[in-house]
Amino acid sequence: MQKNAPIGIFDSGIGGLTVAHAIKEELPNEHLIYFGDTAHLPYGDKSTATIQAYAIKIADFFLQQNCKIIVIACNSASAAANDLLKEYVASRATIVNVIEPMVDFVVKNESDKTVGVIGTKQTVNSNIYSRSIKNTNSSINVKSLATPLLVPMIEEGFLHNKIAHNIIEKYLRDASLKNIDSLVLGCTHYPLIKNELSQFYDNQVNILDSSIITAEFLKEFLASSDLSTTSTQKGNNQFFVSDLTESFEHSAKLFFGEPVVLQKHQLWE
Length: 269
Ligand code: DGL
Known about the structure:
By secondary structure, the protein is of the alpha/beta class. It has two domains: 144 residues, Rossmann fold; 111 residues, 3-Layer(aba) Sandwich (Rossmann fold), CATH 3.40.50. 44% of the residues lie in helices and 17% in strands. It contains eleven helices and ten strands. The strands form two sheets. It has a six-stranded parallel beta sheet with strand order 4-3-1-2-9-10, sandwiched between helices. A four-stranded parallel beta sheet has the order 6-5-7-8, with helices on both faces. Strand 9, helix 11 and strand 10 form a beta-alpha-beta unit. The radius of gyration is 18 Å and the shape is globular. The two termini are 31 Å apart. The model has no long low-confidence stretch (mean pLDDT 95). The site of D-glutamic acid has 18 residues, from helix 3.
């Protein structure tokens, strides 16, 4: 595998740009290729088989670009397609997802605590966080809740207003998230409402952001596998989407935290 090959990053849409931005901050000299499958957004309500079919097609696109790593920057796709993608890609690239680094972090740092997980229906119904955390550290109590309204709410730019506040409050007051010590953001859209979530708990609950944890994991992985770029120049970042509208362009800036030029790339006819 080539050290100076690009890193492919994909999501159902633009939410994964929170992960791409964290990776860019940790690894500024790496060349990043982002693919947002905006034509099929959202993945969170889709079946496992459908998400797997999309993920394979996107992996093929990254393999054509000779990516050394493919980051699944979407919890729903990580839950549904990680194992299949690993098998499919085999030695051609390394698959990194957003769930495993978070699980590693939680099992190391949250012993004897109660950890809440919020995410899409696909992610929460897969039970992947709870299963993986408890398999390694049975002292941790995991409580999960599907919070499907948060993605459309964030996509529509409802972040700091009363409606957003009420939706967040309704979910976080749910009995299934009672008495948690920390909260896993099990969806790559949620870092945008991190402050609002933290404020609900008067900053007494530790909010665990998978974009940062995944970027840190990736940096360590590249170094330990001798796969870090040798370039000393800033990396070249490209952003592709399967469907392009003005609203995606506007939201992309919000999620990435700086202006982004999206290019339409049709993987599907
Ligand atoms: N970004 C996706 C995730 O992390 C949520 C959006 C979707 O449902 O496609 O699960």
